Amino acid sequence: MINRFAVILAAGQGTRMKSKLYKVLHPVCGKPMVEHVVDHISQLEVNHVVTVVGYGAEMVKERLQGKSDFVIQEEQLGTAHAVMQAKDALGDKRGTTLIICGDTPLITVETMSALMKQHEETGAKATVLTAHAEDPTGYGRIIRNADGDVAKIVEHKDANEEELKVKEINTGTYCFDNEALFEALDNVSNENAQGEYYLPDVIEILKAKNELVTAYSTEDFEETLGVNDRIALAEAERIMRARINKKHMKNGVTIIDPANTYIDTDVVIGSDTVILPGTVIQGASKIGEGCEIGPNSEINNCEISHNTFVQQSVLSDSSIGSNVKIGPFAHIRPDSDIQDEVKIGNFVEIKKTYFGKGSKASHLSYIGDAEVGRNVNIGCGSITVNYDGRNKFLTKIDDDVFVGCNSNLVAPVTVNEGAYIAAGSTITDDVPESALAIARARQVNKENYVEKLKSNK
Ligand code: UD1
Ligand code: CA
């Protein structure tokens, strides 16, 4: 088996993004573009992955920790110079080296794998991944000789009129014979329009030595998109989103309007779940089978079990059981744990709360920092008073408690099993098991008072 290495170029600042965030850390469908590249490579049989970092090195390293080794390119003198920085790590090794830019997140594992296969089967010293672009502006052009073989790559800024007409572009992805690569890199000069050391110049250098150089052309230009500015970023997002949605549909998920459904890369969704329009599912969210999510819902880092409904609601960093009904217009805030068969109805906000099986808060409530047992009914408008301006306190509501409408539970407070709270109560003391707590002023009716008021005038 041939040794395989990969070098990811991710040291550039990305001036054209006009951003404080380093280019390769800009997310596409919730994941930094360079991480897409690294994750794709992890699916190939590659022995050693090296990422060249420079701008924002610490942040890039933190993000890719454990997935790649790193070398630093102190000054960004060009893509060839970037690869040179991996010389200490890889220079003396034998094998195939895949080089790919950190700003091409759409190149698929299949394409990378086909490129490597062709490279190894032909025994070429270099194989370039090329594509045909409708509009090749900005890309390096593949210049072929009379026999149709790749002769060299010319950067857009260095190209003459004839070369500018070429629509076959360099995708920035290559396979090299590792030893031939590092030998050729020593001969790359920076005499060009940008005064940079260009990696594509290695092709011409190898050709001059009569080495075999081939190209592998992908049919799909879209996947080779290099993200240099925000317009390309939106384009990459659109393409990636369509891919993700297709993957879920193939797995048995119904997506009513894929153009209006935004699912992050690593989200998992079970079959027979229906996603309605305007829904955003982010982060490491995991949704079970037979659920109905949306319309217009936002789910971030939540685990949701089976047959649960979420309608017009926002949920984050929480766990939701099966056969739960949420919404419309509910807000589940972080660290909530909603058990099976719960109902969280309209205009209910839940924060850092355990909500036991079969319990309900159907309308207009705020439940924060609470532990709610099983089969509890929280009446309309009831709230936990969890904050005194400085500290947060716990409210405990045991199994089978009935909280009447518009009650305030002033924490810290415990309502014990089976207790009833009369509507409109402000509960400041613990309520014993099976007791009825009434904590409100008694009603006084003053007979004929209104007539008296009127005659006083
Ligand atoms: C590059 C190729 C071009 C190709 C295009 C495909 C060169 C000279 N040109 O152009 O032929 O068509 O990609 O998308 O290689 N980087 C470093 N250090 C540097 C310079 C760049 O690490 O000193 C990294 C960048 O972070 C980026 C990648 O290399 O991820 C490509 O650099 P970029 O400036 O985007 O090159 P392009 O102009 O797109
Ligand atoms: Ca680029």
Describe what you observe in this structure:
Its EC number is 2.7.7.23, 2.3.1.157. The active site is at residue 363. Residues 6-218 form the Nucleotidyl transferase domain. Homotrimer. Keywords: Acyltransferase, Cell shape, Cell wall biogenesis/degradation, Cytoplasm, Magnesium, Metal-binding, Multifunctional enzyme, Nucleotidyltransferase, Peptidoglycan synthesis, Repeat, Transferase. It is a single chain. The chain has 457 residues and is of the alpha/beta class. It has two domains: 4-224, Spore Coat Polysaccharide Biosynthesis Protein SpsA, Chain A; 252-437, 3 Solenoid (UDP N-Acetylglucosamine Acyltransferase, domain 1). It is 19% helix and 30% strand. The strands form six sheets. Strands 13, 14, 16, 17, 19, 20, 22, 23, 25, 26, 28, 30, 33 and 36 form a 14-stranded parallel sheet that branches. Strand 8 (141-144) and strand 9 (150-154) form a beta hairpin. The termini are far apart. 44% of the residues are buried. The mean pLDDT is 97.
Give the structural class: alpha/beta
Task: Give the names of the bound compounds.
Answer: uridine-diphosphate-N-acetylglucosamine, calcium ion
Rg: 31 Å
What is the CATH C-level name of the largest domain?
A: Alpha Beta
CATH architecture of the largest domain: Alpha-Beta Complex
Question: Could you report the average pLDDT, rounded to the nearest whole number?
Answer: 97
The strand count comes to: 39
Helix percentage: 10-25%
The end-to-end distance, rounded to whole angstroms, is 104 Å
